[in-house]
Amino acid sequence: MSFELQRKELMATKNFIAGVWQDAVAGETLSVNNPATGERVALVPNSDAKDAKAAVDAAAHAFEAWRTTPAKQRAVILKRWNDLIMACADDLGKIISSEQGKPLSEAVGEIAYAASYVEWFAEEATRANGDIIPQAVRGRKMSAYREPVGIVAAITPWNFPAAMIARKIAPALAAGCTVVCKPAAETPLTALALVKLAEEAGVPAGVLNIVITASSKEVADVWLDDARVRKITFTGSTPVGKHLAHESSRTLKKLALELGGNAPFIVFDDADIDAAVEGLMVAKFRNGGQTCVCPNRVYVQSKVYGTFLEKLTARVSALVVGPASNSASQIGPMINAKAISKIEEHVNDAVARGARVLTGGQRLFTEQRAESTYYAPTVLADVDRAARCFHEETFGPVAPITSFETEAEVIEMANDSPFGLASYFYTNDMRRVHRVTDALECGIVGVNEGALAAEAAPFGGVKDSGYGREGSVHGLEEYMHIKYVCQGGLE
């Protein structure tokens, strides 16, 4: 690693099944590499179906004891986990930066964000209240209880390796579920470190199990076929989410799918332009543009179009690109060469359709590796509506912008997408705030705000962006089902 850890034992490199750190059954390994340099950070297990089944066996064995553990006791364990995560925030941030590439300050910020979910659901564990239903017939009492759904399979992405783990596992454990987890092969070390701390916090053996693999389908298929797994929570691409939904129907699992996005960002001519530029900087260039809620289509009303472009270009051209080891870096490397190629294809396509490159628009090369994983932060003006970057997630530091004339026109453009995760708009007209909020087809709306996520808020989309919610009280309900009890003969 390019960073020195204070707690070196957090660099865990094995599967964790039934409370035991172990290699893959077949003995296979895969390499985790630093995207900035291409250098190996660690070797981890490359698990297969046997490891996946062993994880479910462990979770099944532990479920009864965990589900009957008093909610307050589960909350105490989660609070200890939160405290340990925050105490190790610097080390965990260094692990994220080493395997994912984001600047260290941003990585440490992600740890605080991840811990907020653990703390929130520790508190919510004791509030999973049921209902007393008014009697319809004399001599009868009716009630409804919330119970854990059972074993949860969590499949997480590489872009937020700490936050996505915490946002899925914390509510599952709070609800009384046991977990089998498969983090992204690109960034498993953060997940393993968090599990190490969960073990230290007192999570019992078998309650939380993690397997690492490059063969995602092989592991997922085991969990899809196993009727003991009662819920799948997944963050990733829409095609994979649809596959999981289809295949899980055989055992009627509960699903929470946070899938692809194509977020519009709208600037009306009555907006505070400086605030809108700042909001776009926060929303678009966080994590180098590698987030599912990044604005992918920027619409600016024609009256303020030139002013907005000028101010945004000045801000974007000043961003510092570099490795996480450089404290001045604001934009790190993309996750791999494939990601760079996609960004390049989108920019070239937009330019071929008449877009103007105001800043950036090219790969950046370093002495650290011949194959570039850096892309210059880019502003594209006059982007055609048919351009690929307006219809596919670019997942990179590229802001494609076009102008519009009327509110009705931009609403039609914003909703002209199969996706519906997040939307943003800036205006100082309060009547417009309500009109546009109601009209946008999405699960999350940022009004004069570029930073949306919070542990107390429900996160999720509509249409091809999936269903189910993470965070908030709704996020806990995703891991529970309701049991209705009718007791008669009381008179």
How would you sum up this structure, described in words?
The chain has about 500 residues and is an alpha/beta fold. The chain contains 14 helices and 24 strands. The protein has two domains: about 10-260 and about 465-485, Aldehyde Dehydrogenase, Chain A, domain 1 (3-Layer(aba) Sandwich), CATH 3.40.605; about 265-455, Aldehyde Dehydrogenase, Chain A, domain 2 (3-Layer(aba) Sandwich). It has helices spanning about 50-65, 70-85, 90-100, 105-125, 165-175, 190-200, 215-225, 240-250, 275-285, 300-315, 335-350, 405-415, 430-440, 470-475; strands at about 15, 20, 30-35, 40-45, 130-135, 140-150, 150-155, 180, 210, 230-235, 255-260, 265, 295-300, 355-360, 365, 375, 380, 400-405, 420, 420-425, 445, 460-465, 465, 480-485. The strands form seven sheets. Strands 14-17-18-13-12-20-21 form a seven-stranded mixed β-sheet, with helices on both faces. It has a six-stranded mixed β-sheet with strand order 9-8-7-10-11-23, sandwiched between helices. A three-stranded antiparallel β-sheet has the order 5-6-24, with no helix packed on it. The radius of gyration is 23 Å and the shape is globular. It starts with 14 loop residues before the first strand and ends with a strand. The mean pLDDT is about 95.
